[in-house]
Batch of 4 targets.
Target 1
Amino acid sequence: MASITEAELTRALERTLVIHGKMPTEQARPTARMVLGYFGAEGTVLDNKLSSDDRDRFYQLEEEGLLSSEEEDATVSRGKTWRIHYWLLKKTRIRDVGQGGDAPATDEAESVYRSIGEAAWQRDGSKPRKA
């Protein structure tokens, strides 16, 4: 899949973090530039390359479904195991959001809670009150 451009990621940030009030508009382009600076032409980046502030921003992007993180165990000398954490750029999701596709996905727990009727939340068995 072709690399994500700065413009594509900026639009995706504007349609997720900016719209939800989690990032000011003027931070979308610098954030896109920072993220792409880590990834370059690659689809993954090692977590230990990130600064603390940049890692926090990556977690925000993960919450919006634009990045994901994974880990794997690697055996090194003398049988020691190292856990390697890395980040993946979700190119398809970024393009979908950037082109005005689906709204950010709701998590499974949220959709379950929304599907439960008001009557189920009443403790005394009475009918729900009208607001």
Target 2
Amino acid sequence: MKTHYHKIVFFVFLISATAKSIAQEGLPIYTDYLTDNYYLIHPSMAGAKDCSQLRITGRQNWSGVDEAPGLFTLAYNSKINTNSAIGANFFTDSNGFTSQNGAYITYAHHIDLAKGNQLKRLSFGISPGFLQYSLDRSTFTNVVDPIINDGQNSRIEFNLDIGMSYHVKDFYLIGTLKNAIENRGFNINQGSSSNLRNVLLTAGYIYKLNDKPIAFEPSVLYSNRLSIDQSFADLNAKMYYDLPKGKLWGGISYRVALDNQEINNVATPITLEGLKQWSPFVGVNFNKLMVAYTYTAQSNSEVFSNAGFHQITIGANFNCKQRRKKGRFNCYCPAVK
């Protein structure tokens, strides 16, 4: 009973801390996009390369903590002709008594604005899909709380991600609107907002050292959840080292909340310190295979657990189009080459 009590307290804390911002919002935005996986969060990046791509990611938060959040994703994308591409991604995200599963399919269209070996491309992508929100109340006993006892155990809703991207030589800019359609998951009876829209903007540039097998890529990701005007930024630095049959790469990402979160639906309103975390990562592309590891550590003064977050990404490129010669574009641009 004591174990159940602590689980319930933890669950209520999570619900209270996110009641304003919604506990379920689709695929969580972590740093897995940095492990050769931009399509996971940006639909316009489907088919950006001429190889079909398969990426699988597993993430475990707060290692050693019972009922800690965990995430599994599977993403596939491929060109179907010169300008069109398709993709699909699936995820399952568990967080204590709550979980959500998602399945999306993608269509992307790429318009090359320059001829020859010049990279100048405008791309559009759309990803319709389904989200299943679940709440497991089977272990709750003698709990009197409307947040826990009301609502549905499981709910499936339709949603949509749309986006566009622009690549010119070694510069890229990508924008995506996630959860374009309103829905509330199983919070439908709790007076919570049905607006789960999240604007993502990513920009970066590749600096290639002349006659050296080394390249440097600074980038930034900005996220804003429109219903509560809550935002964060990822400041990223990534290095590439060319190998005879691939690339060795690694870097670090620093995520910082651009505002503090206020909780007003409690007896005494409080302000939580904004999120701050570091994520070093390392990976290798060898022939057509890819593997990467990411570790995330929070740097807030107060955290739920000092345990880090571990993430593994594996992938494969296949069905590469032979019509395009290696080095077609006069840029380093690993996102499209």
Target 3
Amino acid sequence: MTDADGAAEVVRALWERFEARDWEGAGRLLHPALVVEWPATAERFRAAADYLAMNRAYPEPWGHIRVLKVVSEGDRAAALVAIDAPGTGFRCAGFYHVVDGRIVHATELWVTEGGEQPPPERARWTTRA
């Protein structure tokens, strides 16, 4: 698999392995020197081992992970993922750089579904999802 046709497949496979809690399989998709940035909380993971350890240690039940969409161009891919946790839901928009079949850099933007109230001045144009 080349970067040009495989970035989307690598990213999709990562999330599928997270859903299966297949940490070893997920690790094979990550470069050891992986950097993952989470701008919302100003956190940065500077190694695949740290990113995997955090995911493995995250309190269960996570709920189910659904990959809603993955698009790619060359060695870059973007994914929209839903995590259906008990009592709440999360969305992740992630942007990934894949080299030689492994993710070397990611920026993930996490939100809690319905976690923020929209400004009242937009109410005349929108409906609640």
Target 4
Amino acid sequence: MKIFQVIIGTEILNGRREDKHFKFLRDELLKRGYELFASFIIKDDPNLMENIFTLIKNTPDSMLFCYGGIGATPDDYTREIAAKVFSGNKMTFNDEFKKLIDKRFPNEDNTNKYSLALWPENAKPLWNNPVNKFPGFYIQKRYFFMPGFPQMAHPMTQEALEKFFPLKEKKERYTLIAFAKESEMLEIMKKIPKTVEFSTLPKLDYTSEISFAGKNAKEIYEWFKNELNKKKIKYKELPSITY
């Protein structure tokens, strides 16, 4: 599973607002045993949005959490572009949402407001919006679209996670600090199986933080320490982390 995040907002890029979605989604996914594959903050630009959505659609086993641009003003393109990429360019009105609009604004001409309920064909609602009850939507149980307001979007995100992201088994991460340059350990690193989640974080004092997680992580971690001992490379073990 490759989980993407797209945050749409020119106002974030030009400094008028600060992003509050990246950290929230990252941390909520980690709580459930998942990790982000990539995150984008992009302008309200239809061509750029289409290119990013298409990249995600064409990525095997992809999922998407998209924030922003589902309103009804002329600079809101998300619903239209999502339909173009994920629903064959077809859009339909969600009748439940239209009824909610009429209930909230009785005795008014709600024609313009109905555009909020014009969604990609076969989109389903995300109802958990404690602010005004207006829903976001999702497509194929894979692509989730929420407003840009965190107070609305984050409860919808949690709704999607609870529905479609079952809690995964916790995994252990094993970490050490090696008192050596990366180049001194390169031949050892090349032997690490691709099935193990491996990372190295070099530091300016020429030490490296090296960690292993996932399948057979403990076994490979012990092997790596043994290889360091053979090369007389000193290291310091850090406490393992469960997440």
